Amino acid sequence: MKKRLKIALITLISLVVLLTSAFLVYVSDYYRADDVAIAVMQSAEAMRIQDNLIILSPATPSDTALIFYPGAKVEYTAYTPILNKLRQNHITCVLIKMPFNLAILDQNAANKVFDELPDIKNWYIGGHSMGGAMASSYAANHKDKVKGLILLGAYIYGDVSPENALTIYGTLNSNLEKNINYTKNVVIIDGGNHAQFGNYGEQKGDPPATISREDQQNIAVKEIIDFIHKQSKE
């Protein structure tokens, strides 16, 4: 009996070690921020880094902020270029570093943000790809905290009204369409793909875009600003 128990224990420990090793190998292979993102990190004004957060504040105080969840297996700093563009348009942005670059491991990460910026009155949450899915789930479960949802290369996941959500994706990321059963506040960027909302290079399985990364991000930024302005009037 003791021998069987010992064998079972050794087998269990070996399995745990094997699974842990496989997980660590999986998460160690992720997309790194490119030189443009690194340059933004080095030069952006009013950027504060603390407790796994990057807070980008406008030159003048803002009462509107966007909490952003990065895509799966993407270095979170890869989204500083697009968020810095929003900062330049008077929107405070809070970029969250996720455990092992996987938002699915900390869906409620937004909870730690609100107390950091007590002057913000209008909170939005959003994200890219899997980060967008987790942001959508958070919005569905915390309607008292966030006013709207912004999705890049993602779709509504959970009980969120399309009236309160903005969905943006590229024509070369058309596989999303089968999951989008709504038409309100949907923006399709002609020639855009999945990866170009961030600055981390090409993504496996993602068709090359026919517009530049900067153009795709500029279109997204304009649509986000228009959506937030529209929401503020309602």
3D structure, described in words:
With 234 residues, this protein is of the alpha/beta class. The chain has 2 domains: 1-30; 31-232, 3-Layer(aba) Sandwich (Rossmann fold). The chain has 5 helices and 8 strands, in the order ααβββαββαβββα. The chain has an 8-stranded mixed β-sheet with strand order 1-2-4-3-5-6-7-8, with helices on both faces. Helix 3 (80-87) crosses helix 5 (213-232). The longest helix is centred in the first third of the chain and has 27 residues, at 2-28.
Averaged pLDDT, please?
91
**What's the number of extended β-strand segments?**
8
Major beta sheet summary:
8 strands, mixed
Order of helices and strands: HHEEEHEEHEEEH
Strand percentage: 15-25%
Shape: globular
Spatial strand arrangement across the major sheet: 1-2-4-3-5-6-7-8
Which segments are poorly predicted (pLDDT under 50) over 5 or more consecutive residues?
A: none
How helical, in percent, are the residues? 25-40%
Number of domains as seen in the coordinates: 2
For the termini, the CA-CA separation is 70 Å
CATH 2nd-level architecture of the largest domain: 3-Layer(aba) Sandwich
Query: Would you give the CATH topology of the largest domain?
Result: Rossmann fold
Question: How many distinct helices?
Answer: 5
The CATH class designation of the largest domain is Alpha Beta
